[in-house]
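hi! just following up on the protien thing from before. the input was this:
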Amino acid sequence: MSEKVLLVDDEEDFLDAVAERMRARGIEVSTTTSARDALEMIEEKSYDAIVMDLMMPELEGTEALKAIKNRNGELQVILLTGYVTPEQVHQAMKFGAMDIIEKPPDLDVLIEKIKKAHEKKEIILAEKQAEEEIKKK
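and the predicted 3d structure came back as:
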């Protein structure tokens, strides 16, 4: 099964280049340059992971992260940033990010994190399904 990723970045050239390279590796990629659009897109389609720039113009990355996790807790979010500080890492993890990595990302590292995000989402969904089965008994 192909991993499904939503790639969110306000730099269109970066977005197109990374999406093309991910598709070449068999990942199903949707893109948007808007964090607000990303929030709408997660309501309409299922994704294994969201790869999102931390510094977005209309809705800063940690605010978008909080909104995403509130709407869909099993979604795994990998944040990208030009420069990672310990404070950014702390804040991102506090609000539920799976990881935070520097831009431009090493594609092999990013793909590995996406695969882990897919596995993590599957585990969370399986646990939820098991809990529902127990409640039915």
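Residues 107-136 form the longest helix (30 residues).
The two ends are 32 Å apart (CA to CA).
cheers
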